[in-house]
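Researcher: Let's try something more involved. This one mixes different molecule types, so please make sure each is placed in the same coordinate frame as the others.
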Amino acid sequence: MRYAPSDLPVFTLTTGPVDAYPAVLRGLAATVLYDYDPAFQATYQRVAEKLATVVKAETMPVVLQGEPVLGLEAAAASLLGRGDVLLNLVSGVYSKGFAGWAARSGAEIVELAVPYDRVIDPAEVARVLAERPDITVVAACHHDTPSGTVNPVAEIGAVVRRHGALFLVDAVSSFGGMAVDAESAAIDLLVAGPNKCLGCPPGLTILGVSNRAWAKMKANPQAPRASILSILDWEDAWRADRPFPFTPSVAEINGLEAAIDLYLAEGPEKVWARHALTARACRAGIAAMGLAIWPAEERFASPTCTAVKTPDGIDEAQLRAEIRARYGVVLSSGRGETLGKLTRIGHMGPTAQPLHAVVALTAFGGALNALGHKVDVGAGVAAALATIDAG
Ligand SMILES: *Cc1c(COP(=O)(O)O)cnc(C)c1O
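Model: All components are placed in one shared frame. Result:
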């Protein structure tokens, strides 16, 4: 009888939501306290203080009560108004999509776009800013997940700061898995989420806000207040002696504390290193099987996701279905423009362990062979192991 995994996946190696850390699940299961109980107010402030050490914004982090799309929409609504000129740096599906929320504000949108297998050149950003001195906000997506490509946000941030505009960055799928923080990239509004590299379930947004960004939001008559979309409502909510604008997600905050404790205990540099090693092992295996990554150059490739080009003659949806049915491994598809053209192997949080690359490569290669596209799975595994053993 042929082996068939059960209905539930054996390995979820996706680009989010990801398998949560067991310690996070235990955190989520903690007693649900009344939000104004002093014990919960103290927890909330403690979580904000721990987050602050890694977000590194000028002010205390804000936690919004919804997965990070809420944070992105709230950021657009709060920061932008009629009279603003937004430079939207488009390198993929998420950065393109940001324009949809930005447009509702009535701001003028200038677009600098590259093909979705490439990344933004900071010199191009400088050129556009010199042409349009009236640009007030620049938006970028650090890791545009549906392409598995990483933009040089620190270099772009330095250019934006020199120009004087505010810099808004979607760091949802990079934060916690590689080096990015508000300080080092001169980010005025950093949008992150615990549901990717921090290994939590989806449900919260983490924001890092500069003093200039607070000032701009407060001066913006269009910025939402008394709304689920409001950032302004939450400015002082981190303080144990201040009221919440409405009930925070108590269980999610407990889960987030467990995740941030794990992250700090292991040490961010070590966490990033295992994400990077897992991705390197995965790319080595992909190349050894005669397959190609989606990014045009390896230096554009993400440490938190490996996007593999779909070989000619293979149906991408059928490939993932085969991987799932044969081996119980779940991988992510492309999105929008990249849908059907690539498959994504996530290396995020608990799945950013080098040997998970071997699991993904084995399942990927095995399913390709079954579909008639012959690859040498042994060569892929050997290349991945060699990379892992070399550290
Ligand atoms: C996951 C992710 C988000 C959040 O969006 P969902 O698709 O709703 O999970 C936002 N930006 C990026 C770059 C992401 O990877």
